[in-house]
Amino acid sequence: MADAKIVIGAKDETAAAFAAAKARLAGLGQAGAALNDKLVAIGAAVGGAFAAAGLKQFISGIAEGLDKLNDLSDATGSSVEKLSALEDTAARTGTSLDVVGTSLVKLNKAISDAKPGTDAEAALTAIGLSAQQLRDLDPADALVKVAQGLARFADDGNKARLTQELFGKSLREVAPLLKDLTEKGVGNATVTKEQTEAAEKFRQN
Fold first, then answer.
1. Any residues with CB less than 8 A from the CB of 91 and at least 6 apart, and which?
2. pTM for the complete prediction?
């Protein structure tokens, strides 16, 4: 009987945790609707398996991950939608989102600095691209174009040098990501800008 009381108590606390989280989302209007739906789905899946404290941490982790995409969008100029697709690709290839983010920042700088006679301009020319055509793209799409250009090279010293110049990363760090992007492109978005903004507000409340 004592065990039964513990289980019931855990379920009650779990329900309370979901109710509290959903209440905070309720004030966000339509922007929070998708996050609210995610909580409902999660709640149905986990039932009383999580204690309330663990569940709150789990929910906060989801919101933090979404909010991080929003911050990365601000830092790189890429859309949240494109970044969410890149995040999915990164996870599939064992590449951290931090590596994706710093690679995009470095690539943006290389494109910006690619004036005639510079190392950045020479690197882009070597892979059949120009800074101007890349500036007209979302940075995530520019990353795909560069990945496709680098794919024409063997995995040798020249490719390693170009990768370092354009991404500030070793070829070993980004090779799986670049290969996947070359073969499949950016892919489909898994998160929208509206959802990340809702997550930011959720964490602030």
1. none
2. 0.67
